[in-house]
Amino acid sequence: MKIAIGSDHHGFAMKESIKTFLLEIGVETEDYGCYHCSDTDYPDVAFAVANDIRAGKYERGILICGTGIGVAIAAGKVPGIRAALCHDTYSAERARKSNNAQVLTMGAKVIGPETAKKVVEAWVRSEFEGGNSARKINKIIEQELIFLGGVHDEEAGQSSGCGS
Fold first, then answer.
1. Distance of CA 67 to the CA centre of its chain
2. Hey, which residues are catalytic here?
3. What distance in Å separates the CA atoms of residue 53 and residue 36, rounded to the nearest whole number?
4. 50-82: per-residue pLDDT in tens?
5. What does the pLDDT look like over 109-148, one tens digit per residue?
6. Residue-wise burial string across 84-113, b where 16 or more C-beta atoms lie within 10 A, e elsewhere
7. CA–CA–CA angle 14, 16, 18 (5° rounding)
8. Under a CB-based contact definition with an 8 Å cutoff, are residues 98 and 130 in contact?
9. How far apart are CA 122 and CA 151, in angstroms?
10. Which DSSP string do the residues of the chain spell out, in sequence order?
């Protein structure tokens, strides 16, 4: 497995720590930045990671900013991407098993590096279980397609797409 990883300047140190940890457990990474502690806009990094996951270059990605919220929102704007903000191992496991989240987000100002490693390991080692969760994920995908494709809602007699 190879994971795309990125951060803003607030998450830089944690990103570097997580990259080392992932290598220790046999997971390769591709670093999307930032590469320093200078101001970096988290949407730029989040969009780059999420777009490459959407394109099939990577199956999963990890994004880190101060709280994890900004990168989760930004990555989630990319069609087909499910980003999950997790600061504990149970949430990280469920993000994969129940929600098939391709992107894990964390806040470097919220959790410490040792907890972050445990969260990452739980997320990396978990797989989507399908079952009832697949039905729910399919509903999310269908709704996203309606927004993206302007699917016509016959009962309501109106288009649900942009510009209608």
1. 14
2. 65
3. 23
4. 999 999 999 999 999 999 999 999 999 999 999
5. 999 999 999 999 999 999 999 999 999 999 999 999 998 8
6. bbbbebebbbbbbbbbbbbbbbbbbeebee
7. 70
8. no
9. 38
10. -EEEEEE-GGGHHHHHHHHHHHHHTT-EEEE-S--SSS---HHHHHHHHHHHHHTTS-SEEEEEESSSHHHHHHHHTSTT--EEE-SSHHHHHHHHHTT--SEEEEETTTS-HHHHHHHHHHHHT-----THHHHHHHHHHHHHHHHHHT-EETTTTEE-STT-
Place of tokens 């100002």: 109
User: Do 31 and 3 touch, CB atoms closer than 8 A?
Assistant: no
Phi, psi dihedrals of residue 96, rounded to the nearest 5°: -85, -55
Q: What one-letter code names the amino acid at 76?
A: G
Nearest residue to 80 (alpha-carbon basis) of 97, 56, 104, 107? 56
CA distance 91 to 74: 20
